[in-house]
Design a protein that fits this description.
single chain, mainly beta, six-stranded antiparallel sheet, extended
């Protein structure tokens, strides 16, 4: 059989700044048994430094002496949030580690206590006929699931369905066997809790055998999700379907996705009788079947119980869900007040250090009306983007270009639970240009960038051409534009006007492009020679 592969406590890279310079340190300490505090001679110690993208690499080693002592000196460098670490392992003991900041002190004391290694093994079979299953992943996770130990290890069953996990510290774990999605079988956790988290408690040095799993095919649930405000299907939503016991205790959950008609199918649901709670994305309250809101908890036992059996489908499990918060209004043309349909209105989040993500969107109806369902008590950005011939707009009235820029430009929007805010949107009709950028150098394939400038040669906005050299700009205010294209360091204004050399003092005299409201001016083409670089900053 394949033996377990154990992973150390996980690390998450939030921001990878360059490493600091290597620091000379002296690392020393003792290696002892956790239970008795007696010295462990002959333990292997490694000192490790993080390196992107390789991960932790060994920079030094040592071996504990008869008194359990060890010492090492050398260089260790540290990435942001990722310190150096010391690890110790010995026969019949579980791995132990300690981290340190090499820039805090040149003298590092790192005492390590090793637990007697525990062991768990068993067999994975199909319940119906007792046949063994090869290639099933059996995953051991530490409980409670905190940052100290999110992922303890895993094993893959051999041709006879056997698995083994060793080198474990005593502790409280969840142990789950996870068949492939294609198998149609329900994941199962220790003590035959289908996809639940019954705990496995191991003592230091314990050898637990016969921890077996027997898979069932499970059943299927399906139905429709409708919102309680517009009474329309909730389309293209990610669903979490929580199964509760007779007393309302959460047991397990499965996942599904609604189609364009609000229909969903949840597969591989373990057989049993449940109260069912559904959560549709972030914008709707959790709902106990069929229409009991559970935003702040609810008595799910008052909802009808649902029985699921193996190899059968429970259809008609329909839900009516309540929006957490609502923004609605009308989209109209500024000045005339004429309603505008088919306008996307989106919301998203922006990270403090930059970067925005669109979470969901809606589209205005023919009469200009729209309704946007949002999460409550969350810091959101609201915007309309990609609207040509209309100028994009960020909340509440800031002109912008493109989803990312509009999300950045939006004011913060926070709605309380149950709040309904009315917000009409007035859009301005703009102008835009389109064309083709050609690199006259055969075989050249560098990306072409197009910049639009005003009369003072200040850049208004930029875009880039596709792989075939074609481009279209977003809409912006009509008037006099000047356009230039750049490939590598080759630069040219519209109609072949070259950008000046860096040592030329005369400003360029580009051809103006006169645009009127609503115009989409095509044929603004460029032909550049990327082998003849001419580029002047500011032009």
């Amino acid at each position: 059989m394949r033996r377990a592969r154990l992973a150390a406590a996980g690390w998450l890279v939030l921001s990878l700044a360059p490493p600091l310079s290597a620091q000379q340190v002296a690392v020393h300490g003792t290696v002892t048994e956790y239970a008795s505090s007696t010295a462990i001679p002959g333990a292997s110690i490694s000192i490790e430094s993080f390196s992107w993208p390789a991960g932790y690499l060994v920079v030094g080693t040592a071996t504990s002496d008869a008194a359990g002592s060890y010492a090492w000196s050398g260089d260790c460098e540290m990435w942001t949030l990722l310190p150096c670490r010391v690890r110790a392992v010995a026969p019949d003991y579980a791995l132990a580690e300690s981290t340190f900041n090499p820039y805090g002190t040149p003298d590092v004391l790192a005492n390590l206590s090793l637990h007697r290694a525990a062991f768990v093994s068993g067999t994975v079979r199909i319940a119906a006929d007792g046949s063994s299953l090869a290639g099933v992943q059996v995953v051991l996770r530490c409980l409670p699931e905190d940052q100290a130990c999110l992922y303890a290890g895993y094993a893959i069953t051999d041709v006879e369905g056997h698995y083994s996990l060793d080198g474990l510290a005593g502790g409280t774990y969840s142990l789950c066997a996870e068949p492939s999605q294609e198998s149609g079988l329900v994941p199962q956790c220790f003590d035959h809790a289908d996809a639940g988290h019954d705990v496995l408690v191991l003592a230091d040095g314990e050898h637990r055998t016969g921890v077996d799993f027997a898979f069932h095919p499970g059943g299927t649930v399906s139905g429709m999700v409708v919102d309680d405000y517009l009474h329309q299907p909730v389309a293209n939503a990610s669903l979490t379907i929580s199964l509760r016991t007779a007393d309302g205790t959460p047991l397990t959950q499965t996942y599904a996705h609604t189609d364009s008609n609000g229909r969903y199918v949840g597969e591989h649901v373990p057989a049993g009788t449940y109260h069912v709670v559904l959560t549709a994305g972030r914008s709707f309250d959790p709902t106990a079947y069929p229409d009991l809101p559970c935003a702040e908890g609810c008595d799910v036992t008052s909802s009808p119980a649902v029985e699921v059996t193996d190899n059968a489908t429970v259809d008609g499990l329909d839900f009516i869900v309540q929006p957490r918060a609502i923004i609605s209004g009308h989209v109209r043309e500024a000045g005339s007040g004429v309603p505008i349909g088919d306008i996307p209105i989106a919301y998203g989040n922006c990270l403090p250090l930059g970067g925005c993500l669109t979470i969901d969107r809606t589209v205005s109806a023919a009469d200009g009306s729209y309704t946007l369902f949002l999460p409550d008590n969350d810091l959101l950005r609201v915007y309309t983007a990609n609207l040509r011939p209309w100028i994009d707009q960020a909340w509440p009235t800031t002109p912008c270009m493109g989803e990312s820029a509009c999300a950045q430009a939006s004011g913060d929007v926070t709605l309380e639970h149950g709040e309904h805010r009315i917000a009409d949107i007035a859009l301005v009709r703009g102008a835009s240009i389109a064309g083709h950028v050609e690199d006259t150098v055969p075989g050249a394939n560098a990306t072409a960038f197009i910049f639009v400038k005003d009369a003072t040669m200040q850049t208004i906005f930029g875009t880039y051409a596709d792989d075939e050299g074609n481009y279209e700009t977003p809409a912006w205010y009509a008037g006099t534009w000047f356009a230039k294209a750049v490939i590598d360091h080759a630069c040219q204004f519209y109609q072949g006007v070259r950008c000046p050399d860096a040592d030329e003092n005369e400003p360029p005299a580009p051809t103006p492009i006169q645009l009127v409201v609503g115009e989409h001016h095509t044929g603004i083409d460029f032909a550049l020679d990327s082998a003849d670089p001419i580029f002047r900053d500011g032009f």
